[in-house]
Fold this protein.
Amino acid sequence: MRLFPLFLVLVAGTAAAQDWTPSDTHLAMHRALSARHFDGDCARIEALSKTPVETLSDLVEHAKSPPWVPMRAASCLVKGHPEAIRADLDRWVTDPDLLGLGIQTLAQIDLLPEEIALDVARRAVAEGPVELDARARVLKSERAAVRAVVEGQ
Amino acid sequence: MKLHIVAAIALVAMVGCKRNEAEKKGSPAVIADGAWQHTEAFSGRTGGDGVLEVEVEVAPGQTAFQVTGSSRTEFVGLERVIDPDGNVALHWEDWWNSDEALTDAIFGWTRTVAFNWPVREEDGPLTPGTWTVELYAAKANGDYASSKIDGNLWLKADADFSQGEVPVHIVYAKGQDTPKITGAVEQAVEQWVRIWGTRGLSLVPTYHTSDLPKNLGFAYAIHGSEDVKAYVATLPPGELVLIVGETVDGEMDTYGLAGGIPGPLEASPFTWVLIGWLANAGVDGQFDAEEIRIMGETMAHEVGHFSGLYHPIDFDDYFEEVLSWDALADTAPCTEWQSCEAAMADNVMYPYPVCDYYGDGGCTPANFVTADQGGVWHRYLGVK
């Protein structure tokens, strides 16, 4: 009986993925983010969509290949829209199935507004998966206040 | 750097400008008696026109050469190549504004330049005799400059441009030699071996650990990395180096990068191809079979650049306009992304992997190498 709820979750997740249909905007942004040599110009990427936060978030959630597409989409969200993705940031640094996003987020922690950076650092240190090695990554922040999340413990 | 054009026109008109010739440093330093690869050092100062002439003595049986040059203060690039009969085999002006790309050496992006000749079958075979390679030094604003240039001449005797051996050093940055990463990298290298093997190139990988920074933070430093130069100097000379870090320059925007097209063989701040494993592993930070395959294609692609290849086509940021093609005859001369994908999605040097949107259907394997592309690799000095 314990497997039953998990089964339901898996079915629901699969159905959600299949129900989602990419638009031409998603396809154009996916192609642009697929480039083997990307200059990191998120503004150029975001100009492809009238709702860049939603489109980028969709790519983080649904695009799988090549693997750098969802990573670059997440990177653009961190750089340009941290307020809009606060809940996602918490999830990325605590969910063991999102280890790659967690490592990336902590590598970019100094790009976040300080208040958000502090929240992310606290969540990562307290709840992050072991493999994330959050304490060591937070200690590499250039901000004393962020490093203090670890040093003060 | 387009100021080079203006500067060149002005300088050519100068009367009495002097070109200096490089002096060879002592007797040639042969790597090993009877070796396939031979190198000797040179040094000189650019003349009034900003150019240094480097003579390359090509003996019968020698089939390709690479000239490298470095300045401590100025940018260094390739001006012209003159064959033993006095004919201009390559002039920077012919390629500067071309919509085809042959070598980055003409652009003088950094203080180190590498130039490999011949690039293509149609550029050769290499005629025995005295070749002259003209290197220029330029300031950041594009003006020619007087500067001391130190460099090396590399020559190889490779009678067969259809079979070759490629020694390559896989170097893990500090702390990146965990079982998860090494397992994925070694499987990816197997994929790379298969791809290059389709054109008769046998990779011989050896694995190393290092104290190089895991964020490979030197990747976009305009003058490269002296730490890498020092590390590469500890390896056998004249062999390829691929460095595996967590990220490339601490960013997720780059999962692989080459130190030049072509890259220098000798230990230099740009003797590297870089791979960031994290961007290749994706959001979960773990490798599945397709991600390993794509990482192997990435290795083949990036080392492909280092060994002289360009993308068969490059688009603008919005895939609406073609910016350039490679200079090879057997890659498709397509003009828009739909037809280019149809023709070349499986080409190892295609500018992006062509993937099913959801990823459920995966990406088209990018493992095809055309005969002309393989020919460029065979002529690179790092290929035995």
